[in-house]
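We treat protein structure as text, and this decision shapes the records that our systems exchange. This encoding replaces a full spatial description with a residue-level series of whole-number codes. Below, we set out a record of this kind in full and without editing:
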Amino acid sequence: MSALLALALLAFTSAAGSPNAGLKTWGRFSKLPYPGDKAFLYDTFPKDFIWAVGTAAYQVEGAFEKDGKGLSIWDTFTRGGNRMATGDVGSDSYHNIHADIRAIRQLGVSHYRFSLSWSRIFPNGSRGSHNEIGTNYYRNLIRKLKEIRVQPVVTLYHWDLPEHLQQTLGGWANPDMVAIFRDYADFCFQTFGDDVKFWITIDNPFVVARHGYGTGVVAPGIKSDPDLPFRVGHNLLKAHAAVWHLYDRHYRPRQWGKLSIALSSHWINPSHTRLESLRECQCSLDHVLGWFARPLFIDGEYPACMKERLGSRLPSFSREEREQVRQTADFFALSHGAVLSFQLINDSLKFGQHEDLDLRKLLYWVNAEYNKPPIFVVQSGWYVLGNTKTEDPKHMYYLKRFIAEALKSIVIDGVKVIGYTAWSLIDGFEWHREYGIRRGLYYVDFNTPDMKREPKTSATFYRNVIQKNGFPELPENSPAHGTFPCHFVWGVSANSIQVETTPTQFSDHSVYLWNISNNGQLKKLEGFNAPPLRRSPHCADYATVRQQVEEIQKIGVNHFHFSLNWSALVPTGDVAHANTTLLRYYSCFTRQLLQANITPVVTLWHHTRQRSSLPPLLDNANRWLNRDTPEAFADYARLCYRELGEYVKMWITLNEPNDEMVSYQEGHQMLRAHAMAWHAYDRDFRPSQGGQVSLALHMDWVEPAFSFSREDVEPAKRVLDFRVGWFAEPIFGTGDYPLGMRSWLRQLNSLDLPVFNEDDHHLVKGTYDFFAISHFSTKLVTHAKEDSYTYTAKLEVQHMIDTTWIMSPRPVVPWGLRKALNWVRERYCDVPVYVMANGVQEDPARFKDSLRVYYLYNYINEALKAYTLDGVNLKGYFAYALNDQRDPEFGLYGQVQQEVIVKASLSNYRNIIRHNGFPILGGAPQQCPSRPQPCSGCQLLVRKPVVGFLTLVGSGVLITLGLVIYYTARGHKECY
């Protein structure tokens, strides 16, 4: 949000004052620190926080004609039109109080929100038709709740109006409903009020008015008059106010309860950073939530935006009615989630803006707009598809997200949120969605006579949250303090380097006129060239080498990892016809790195999905499936060892070959190629060069979606076997593919996985000097299948994410690196480990790349925990990547046109390197011996101007040939 817009917004809100104070919400959240504010908050709720779960009568009770119950508008509505299902039986809670009570007790909630079926108590809607059996049902329910020490939160009206009132009076369209509803409420207060401390008069009047009497989506399904919803809403407000005053005057003095109305809302974000867009967002909320909230919480008037746009279509309150309506709520009862957001808000109420599902911002807006009321979230949650049973990862992670947002609202934003209600207790009839979705924490088997209830994973999760009263800080969540060992490797990685094989120094062959008698300036003489210099190119001639080495040096790293281009170095596939010019460039680059005290780490072949990077002949001949390819790779490796091995002491044969797009047959040949290259170095070059060789595997972490479920631990292990163990186990372990991988494919009757013959077994096993991983993110996996997530049929796992994670676009999950490193330790003991690439995507235009700063700090901190706390033999860490030019969106350097920009993350990374980790503030500094020069006698190139003149004098003009500026070694004189 621009500064100009912020000033305009401040002026607007100051001028408007309450009730438009909520307009500051968008500006406030746009200024919060990113991504720190998006990070998960580990903390707990206030001690008296209300943990609740809820249901609605028509959704779960069933028994629609049992024991004298009258018909409701939903009984009629579900039998009309093209509707396929009814709530006649629902979850049959009427006959299963004991099962519901058991579920409530298992959850450990403090409150249970349920609604009274008006037509079960008054079959025709009026007191004269009182049904004692129906009334006793609720007496019994409240009594059983008291026995398990759970407080009832009772809703008088949750959409199921007695059909008789609809038929005889026209339902809520008739103002007479105000007195009728008041009388019904009076009976309920008399009958149940001594045991009820929280009352909700009406649930979601927006849906009742707009969709019951406007769009016809819900009962009673009326859609004949576009202005009718506003008259219905008017009556609902007056009915609520009448009931509040009734309770306040006659029942509150002895029952000491609180009463409100449940208002539901979406959230909405501006489509443009203009004040007009913010006003449209405000207006959208006013048309949904403000329609009912402003009259009740502010001044008995409808929002100005509604009055301006609807004009005479919107009823008005008289002065007496305004006084009757205003301030008639003891707390703000807020509903949020699937029923309204993303389902029942159409585009006409979005006013061109973008709907979002952000409970935290909505809570802040309510707090600002309505004078900081105590807010009780009386309905919140998501849903899963109707065929989902007890594993509901989507529901669980949305529940986690909403609870986490409520916690931030309390702790960070200062909003007084007094309670949270997960919706719902059990699966039931989901209104216009019928049984197509499930929202229960408990699965209901509708095909069993007793409607068997089973806890879902979301129920287990919610119970754990309640037991801990939130998300308490755990030791593993706290940042670690300490340092890495003195000789820890700090590096930066790049997929490739900039290559310009034409020397950029000594390349100006122009002839100049030097005007010594006037201004002394040089003027280029067109059409004349000096003869070329008779010498071979030197490393000093390549400006690209100097520039890249200087950029790497500024980061403060001691290692640099990059990849060679096999197809360019050996274009024919025959090392006898290698590209010596390119080899010379790579030789210069690695030598200059050493002279800058930076150790080169060189990858022979970097796997990319976009191109194979194999020499053309191999690329056209089945690539890695060609059994000649490993031999060709080994020959190529020997060439590189021979030509570059003097400067390179750390080699990666294959970088990230374990891509899921690679077939098992291709992978087998890649393993052979790596092994051949390793043996070639071990046998022919290690004795003289003393370097190390291994391969680098892509290893994003895989976490069970339900960490408390044994059933999801196996899928996570399976994915790691197939993604990482596939290449790791043959080399670092048994010399064969993982046992779990083979057994799983055997179950599928698959013959895809090759078999190691005796020669290949001995060839591959043990071909490593260290374990290198590239790690970027973490995924969740579960064996439960849900259509909204990626499902891998072959492994029978569903991939998903935690909705509380920071996204960019992959999840930012620092602790995943620690778990990945521990996986390596547990599998392969004390093997030396290098994190060869670790980085995050961020908009290249963000030079203050706060996400990358956050990412590097926290991932390196998790690496420190793995080293200091877990005993992982971690030898080094490489940030990815050097610059955006070679690795777009990942760079520590940015670029605008030709100008190189140092991003904030580079400075922060350099600071971590300088301190060798995260030392305790004020502690004694780490004492480390100075690092030895990796190349004794090597000299770093420094800038030295050298001017050579060949002068011809005539008529006062000097003709000068060849003005030269080049780089020479410090302390050395080079003559040509």
